[in-house]
Amino acid sequence: MTDTQAPAVRTDNTERATPKRETHIKMAARDVNVFYGTSHAIRDVSIDVDMENVTAFIGPSGCGKSTFLRTLNRMNDTIPIARVTGDITLDGEDIYSPDMDVVQLRARVGMVFQKPNPFPKSIYENVAYGPRIHGLAPAKRDLDGIVESALKRAGLWEEVKDRLDDSGTALSGGQQQRLCIARAIAVDPEVILMDEPCSALDPIATAKIEELIHALRGKYAIVIVTHNMQQAARVSQKTAFFHLGHLVEYGETSEIFTNPREERTKDYITGRYG
Amino acid sequence: MNNPPAPDAGAPRRPTDWRGTAMQRRIRRRYAAERRFRLIGLGAVVLSAGFLAFLLITMLSNGIAGFTRTEVTLPIDFRAAQLDVTPQQLESRGADLALAGAGLEELVERSATAAFGAHGPDVISPHAWTGVRDALKDDPSLLNRKAAISVPVSQDLKSALDGAGKPEMQAIAAKLKQHDMIGSSFDFGFLMSADSTDPTDVGIWGAVKGSLFTMLVTLAIAFPIGVLSAVYLEEYARKNRWTDLIEVSINNLAAVPSIIFGLLGLAVFLSFMNLPRSASLVGGLTLALMIMPVIVIASRNAIKAVPPSIRDAALGVGASKVQVIFHHVLPLALPGILTGTIIGMARALGETAPLLMIGMRAFIAQPPEGLTDPATVLPVQIFLWSDQISRGFVERTSAAIIVLLLFLLAMNALAIYLRNRFETRW
């Protein structure tokens, strides 16, 4: 790691990014560090995620944006050598405290992955799985309702309503990804984390997902990791630029893309490296 | 842009001569190598298929005779004999005892002497009278008339019919053939009775039942323990020196010669735990120890093959670890686990050595009724019969081998079916 001087923009971004209207901060990270064994993947990252805006994480490959995303619902717990320090709160509750039930946390902070990963079960079962294990639907009728509304919100209902018993893996890539979004929505989360949700999709499917993100904005706090800067510009209102494990700059998307304060941000978004 | 420049970038390269003789030769050599390799592969396949065909043909040609029994038509005059039994007795439960008490066996021997001469009793099987007994039970009206009943022939006559054995028997055999009194039929007794000292009377059912009981115990012990160990090792155990050690031990256990497991079973189950000797319970436990490593290894591989994206997906909607395992990982790994288990079971079904160590080689003339009854199993039965000097056992041995092979074939077919049927694509 050559980058030893800590970037100036770490904690003061909150005041800088203070938007004009009142926002409700959903998740807040303070001085978060992530270690994989001896390697230091995330360095002193502090960031707020709010309810009203879509937050995009951008940065070159290996900069730690996906790693950081996975700390927000403790998916890093599954990696034995990963270690997280610092505070991350959801509605003011420390998600790494022993009182926090990680299973409930992941229901409240849903996740959509890079590669569409529907269960090799029916479309219905894919969406119904979450509500069922959390006991959200006592009767079959309630479950049907949840499945239908989740699929409708994910914009997939019209395409699959006649074949809910078909396997989820038989859908096209874009449909599979929307099915995964429906699956995440079905447990009624508060935050949805999306880890490069369009990287395996063609442009048309990507456009559909982006529309969907627009439609979901405001109902859920949405954080999206993307390699595609146009996509970040299109779907997000706030953008965070990560580089070598540091949060270099965080602010309004329009601001970051037109008038970045940091030299490195500017270099990255103009394609100088990455 | 950051590629280092080639060391001799300045010198112009001569254009490659794709049609030159050196190039042509290289191409020819390449094709020749390919042909050679294909021929060697084909040769290997043909050779192994040939061995298999030889085995099957030998077994079938010997074994088919083992499934049939040679019969001779024996005329018996029941009316003249005046057996001391009533038709009512024949209908009742005590019929066997009544007929034995009434001297049916002697009657059959007398009839044989009358029909075939002084050597008559040697012509028919010593158990022939039980066939007559069953015929009487089926049709009590026989008591009042003369009847010709097909009874199994003795081993001596059977040899004589094949052109071997004692000269006096050969003479009788020739005469019987002339009068067309020799027949053969499918031997249901072979499929329904147990071991015996007389090859015309042996059956495979005792061994089949013993094998079934043994396999049942093996499956009931080895499958849950093996699969749960695999789940624990794959999903819960931390990777450290201890788990490495366990992994190496399991792989080594899978390669330990089976007779060692027999000694282990002898020491633990018989000497220490005092379980009954020769019982299918002990055999099953011993074989379970033997195939457990196989199941653990197969299950671990199947679990490892479940893509991490499925685990992530389940964890991502808030499934707990146990839910991830039981709702997603195990169902997806099940075809692999079952295939491994069936292959392990097939190995256990064909295993002889460890069962000899725990006393399952005893002569057992009664099919086992329960797990703790003395029993034998198919491969041990084959081993025991192949040791017999009497000629009749050669055919019986082959017939038993065919039965064993059919079982193995069925199990392997099941494994293939399961693999294809439940193979999931993601």
UniProtKB/TrEMBL annotation, chain A:
Ranges for domain ABC transporter: 27-269
CDD domains per record: ABC_PstB_phosphate_transporter (cd03260)
Transmembrane segments: none
GO molecular-function terms, A-Z: ATP binding
Alphabetical keyword list: ATP-binding, Nucleotide-binding, Phosphate transport, Transport
Coiled coil, from the record: none
Pfam families, A to Z: ABC_tran
Alphabetical list of NCBIfam families matching this protein: 3a0107s01c2
Full protein name: Phosphate ABC transporter ATP-binding protein PstB
Organism: Stakelama flava
Lineage: Bacteria, Pseudomonadati, Pseudomonadota, Alphaproteobacteria, Sphingomonadales
